[in-house]
Amino acid sequence: MAERKIFAGARIRRIRNERALTQVAMAEDLGISPSYLNLIERNQRPLTVQLLLKLASVYKVDLDQLQEETGSVLAGLKEVFSEPLLAGELPGDQELIDICEAAPNAAAGVLKLFRAYREQQKRLTDLSDMMVREGKALSLAPTRLPLDEVREVLARKPHYFERIEAEADSFNRLLKSEDGLAVALKQWLKREQSITVRTLPAATMPNWRRRYDRHSLRLFISERLSIFDQTREIAMEAASIRMQVVIGAELEDLKLSSAEAKRIARFELLRYAAHALMMPYTPFREAAQRAKYDIDVLRARFNVSFEQVACRLTSLQKQGATGIAFFLQEIDQAGNRLRHFGAQGFPQARFGGACPKLQVYNAFSHPQQYLAEQVELPDKTQYLTISRTVEGPQTGFGEQPRRTVLMLGCDASVAQDTVYATYLAGMSSGSAVSPVGTACRLCERQACLARAEPPLTRPLALDEMVSGFSAYDFQ
User: Fold this and answer.
1) Phi-psi group of 344: left, alpha or beta (phi > 0 → left; psi -120 to 50 → alpha; rest → beta)
2) At CB < 8 A and 24+ separation, what contacts does 400-405 make?
3) Which UniProt keywords are present, listed alphabetically (predicted)?
4) Which residues pair with 247 in a beta bridge?
């Protein structure tokens, strides 16, 4: 505590005013001169350890609360100034600290106003989505971060890039990968680009999956990755060289608004290109149809991971040679949606993914198990969903592992073409159908035990004499 200077003039002034004390009276209580207290209140002198202890004993001030108060407000102000509308005016930490210290009540007011703004924006977005689904166009242009823009653009279009597929087929014919794709790619990189691929231990590469050293012409891959992810990283590097022109053309077609959004989208296109190399379109589609889209069979056939097969299944949208129109979304344990694409934007525009009744949230309790279910939205449309956990890079002892869940889904009308339909008892009679919603704010299902928020579209019906099982009763 002695090494850290604490300037808390505004809070000392507030403590004094709350007790209706003059500076002379408070200075006498604390055993200091009124002029010194005046300097403290103007943040021209820090609080000493002795003064902090004196404040605690004389005025029963919680020292932890005294020090944490600024920290919580400071964190809130950092969030405010991370808003894209204010990104160009982001002050340094010291300026935010000055605001917290000099005007804590004003800072708290700014936070309340910002939270109200965020809530209003969220509700407008929910209402906009609902009106679009009902065929009522509503043009809203909320400020978006580059990552949000990329996710929305990819979710609105079929997850299929024709030029990348054609180039991947051509590249695969050139590679002739009888000994495996990873070996063939390493040989091509060495032969055509003089690039050597090396796998490095976690201690040498603690923060990177893949790193290319332009000076030594070496591509380093982390040993923390599974063998499947190592192959994908090598394929992404090769695709960035071989498919540079077509990836650039597909990137321009996305019509993104910023350089940062384009950089993020380019990474997604490189990952798509790597999957196209690892699972060539025609052989993969034919194998998927023969295996009735059994993911484990396809994993073994193409020597890839569950996550890679799931992503590839969403891309079977070639005109004249389509597969099932799958959609995909990935969430983490906090419920954050990390990826969503496939089937013309289905997960975002029509299937918000925020219903807690979906098996995608239950999958965390059943690691590496497939959870299949047939769900029905309030408008009676039904879908088959398959959820399973995905393990992140290998962790060391004491490290927190990364675990997310992928949910793969398709329209229930084609569910019988998949092997998973046989696991859904009573599918034909509808007894195994789970009623879900788009999101609590838009769902009007009565007496839902999982409801987290009341619907925007219905008035609340709170009655002191009657209490339902749902957290929110509505008319």
Assistant:
1) left
2) 403/332, 403/333, 403/364, 403/367, 404/330, 404/331, 404/332, 404/333, 404/338, 405/330, 405/331, 405/332, 405/360, 405/361, 405/363, 405/364
3) DNA-binding, Transcription, Transcription regulation
4) none
- The token pair at 62 is 């919680």
Q: Please check whether residue 406 is in contact with residue 331, taking contact to mean a CB–CB distance below 8 angstroms.
A: no
Domain locations in the chain as residue ranges: 9-110, 145-278
Instruction: Give the three-class secondary structure for 15.
Output: helix
Nearest Cα residue to 200 out of 222, 230, 224: 222
Contacts with 425 (C-beta within 8 Å, 6 or more apart), sequence order? 431, 432
What sign has the CA pseudo-torsion 172, 175, 181, 187?
negative
| Cα radius of gyration rounded to whole Å, the chain | 29
Amino acid at 459: P
Q: Tens digits of per-residue pLDDT, 193-224?
A: 999 999 999 888 888 999 999 999 999 999 99
The encoded tokens of residue 434 equal 């789970």
Please state which of the four CATH numbers 1.10.260.40, 3.40.47.10, 3.60.21.10, 3.40.720.10 is assigned to the domain occupying 9-110.
Answer: 1.10.260.40
The CA distance from 398 to 30, in Å, is: 47
> If one looks up domain 145-278 in CATH, what number appears?
1.10.10.2910
What 468-475 contacts at long range (C-beta under 8 Å, 24+ apart), as own/partner pairs, is 470/446, 474/444
| pTM, two decimal places | 0.72
